[in-house]
Structure formats: C-alpha cells, structure tokens
Automatic annotation (TrEMBL):
Belongs to the ABC transporter superfamily. It comes from Desulfosporosinus nitroreducens. This is ABC transporter ATP-binding protein. PROSITE patterns: ABC_TRANSPORTER_1 (PS00211), ABC_TRANSPORTER_2 (PS50893). Transmembrane segments: none annotated. Residues 5-231 form the ABC transporter domain. Keywords: ATP-binding, Nucleotide-binding, Transport. SUPFAM superfamilies: P-loop containing nucleoside triphosphate hydrolases.
Length: 302
C-alpha cells in the first residue's frame, strides 16, 4: 500500500535547543496512527513540520511521496488539520464559518452541508459559534478539517476537553472516516484512546523517537508478557507441580496454592491452555491479563 507519510532524519533546533532530534517515522496509507510523548517531547513541533508550518533544520518529509517546495499546494490539499485549539469568529454562524473555510480550500458550499451532517451540526448550522460548547466547536473544527476530503487527517490532541459522550462520538467519526479510506494521524496523552484506535504508534521522548510500531510489537520489544492464571481443584496440585518440574515446561510458570500462573507471548496463550487440557489438568477457572499500553509507555520512558 505504501506510506502516506515518511519522515527521515528530521531535526528542528530553536537556537541551541534541539526540539526534534533526527526522527524517522513511517505512516501507512489507510491506517490510524498515534503520536505519544510527555509535555514538551516535541509532538507539536513534529506536527507543524508535517503540515509545512515550521521549516525543519534538517531531514526530509514525504507526504504521499511529495516534498514541500514547488509541490506545497498539492500537499496541503492532501492534509486536513484539527489544531488543539481552534479560534473561530464568535459572531459568525457554523454555516458562515464553514463556507469561509470552503472558499479558502476551493471547495463548493454543497460540501459544507455534507461536512456539517457528518459532524452532527446540521441542525444548529445557523447558530452563532460564540454560543457553541467546547464539544460543538471541536465538531466544527473537524468539519473544516475534512471539508476538502483529505487523504491524511492530522488531529492534535483531539479528545482533550471533551466530555465522555463527546469522546465516544469523536472516536466513532474517526473510525468512519478511516473506514472510508482516510489515514488518521493523531497526537494524544490518553493511552486508552490510543490503544483503542491506533494500529501503529510512535512514542517521543525529549525530542527523540523512543519507540515505534504496533502495540503487539512494542510489547514484544519490551518483553512484556501476557499472564494466564489457571485455578485447579486442590487434588490437582500435585499434577500441575509435576508439570512444572517435568519435561513439559511451557514458558515461565509459577504455582501458588492451587493457582498456576504462566507468562507467555500473547499469541501463545491459547496453545498453553490447550496444552494444560491435553495434560489432563481440570481447569476450574482462568484469567488472562494482557499488558496494556500504560505498561509499555512506562517501560519506554524508563
Ligand atoms: N518557537 C519555539 N521557540 C523555542 N522553543 C520552542 C518553540 N516551540 C517549541 N519549543 C520548545 O520545543 C519543545 C517541544 O515543544 P512541543 O510544543 O513540540 O512539545 P509537545 O510534545 O507538543 O508538548 P505538549 O504535549 O505540551 O503539547 C519544548 O521544550 C518547547 O518549549
């Protein structure tokens, strides 16, 4: 499928301060990709360089194979952008605001109607934006970001400040646009949103790229194991103890009282459970605990 975004050895210095330090990153066409990192890690600087708003000190950015320069206008048509904070004119209605953006992007006003419907603002399109809640302003921000049907939608901390229903609805919109073929690139501090939405992610730390890949890859890289706990009846303890001692070792495992805990790669868990059943272990109950992005993030930041 190829990459919609390629970043090669990208650097940004502000005087002596290195805000982005030789970053490499790949975003596949059609995926949802998340950018994570602590405050001041360099995420916004990276996003601004991707958008062509800040010039890199060194390195290369390719958007759908194109580089900024003579092709800048073509690149800008490929990208839709929702900044962390949008500043609208309070006295304009949602419709007037969006038709303004439509003109800027050379899009017909018929498309404004569709975009307002997609973000759920069609009913209130003649209301003043100054009277909109944070969530409604966010929706209007999304409408201007998608109005020209971009191939790459860049969202800077899109869930910040939204209430729980607003967050659920935003996630649904992201999924819908992604299903329709738009690549989504978003920055976030919310690990559960990232875990839920992103197929791949990049974690920045003090301007550098600390880790990149899918959650499964990062769990593997940082050796974070899945834990299976199997409870057996007391008369089976001798049997599971013999498993521990015998030739049938299965990854790491420990026994406490009548509970067997196994640590394995996530994809091995079913094989381990099947193996226990085959050995004649009568399982009374079991739980599977997968390490989440929070643990991965902690490890990366160490
Ligand atoms: N125009 C600028 N001049 C000087 N330093 C800057 C400038 N813009 C950003 N920086 C510095 O670069 C570093 C990275 O900032 P950036 O805004 O990219 O971080 P961030 O990861 O987006 O943080 P947050 O999560 O808080 O938004 C920070 O130390 C910031 O102070």
């Amino acid at each position: 499928m190829g990459y919609i975004l390629e970043v090669n050895n990208l650097e940004k210095n502000y005087g002596d301060f290195v805000a982005v330090n030789k970053i490499n990153m790949r975003v596949n066409q059609g995926e949802v990709f998340a950018l994570l990192g602590h405050n001041g890690a360099g995420k916004s600087t990276l996003i601004k360089m991707i958008l062509g708003l800040v010039n890199p000190t060194a390195g290369e950015i390719l958007i759908d194979g194109l580089q900024y320069g003579p092709k800048s206008k073509d690149i800008k048509n490929l990208i839709g952008y929702l900044p962390e904070r949008m500043n609208f004119y309070d006295n304009l209605s949602a419709w007037e605001t969006l038709t303004f953006y439509a003109k800027l992007k050379g899009v017909s006003s018929a498309r404004c109607k569709e975009a307002l419907e997609q973000v759920g603002l069609a009913e209130v399109k003649h209301r003043r934006v100054g009277a909109f809640s944070k969530g409604m302003q966010q929706r209007l921000g999304l409408a201007q970001a998608i109005i020209h049907r971009p191939k790459l939608l860049v969202l800077d901390e899109p869930t910040t400040g939204l209430d729980p229903i607003g967050i659920l609805e935003l996630k649904e919109m992201i999924r819908t646009w992604n299903r329709e073929g738009t690549t989504i690139f978003f920055s976030s501090h919310n690990l559960s949103d990232v875990q839920e939405l992103a197929e791949n992610m990049a974690i920045m730390n003090s301007g550098s790229m600390a880790a990149e890949g899918s959650l499964a890859k990062l769990k593997h890289d940082y050796k974070l194991m899945t834990r299976i706990e199997v409870r057996v009846s007391t008369d089976q303890i001798a049997m599971i103890s013999s498993l521990e001692r015998g030739a049938n070792t299965m990854g790491q495992f420990e026994i406490h009282d009548n509970t067997l805990s196994c640590y394995c790669e996530s994809q091995e868990k079913m094989a381990i459970l099947q193996r226990l059943l085959k050995e004649g272990v009568e399982i009374e109950d079991f739980t599977v605990e997968e390490p989440g992005l929070d643990l991965v993030y902690q490890q990366v930041m160490k």
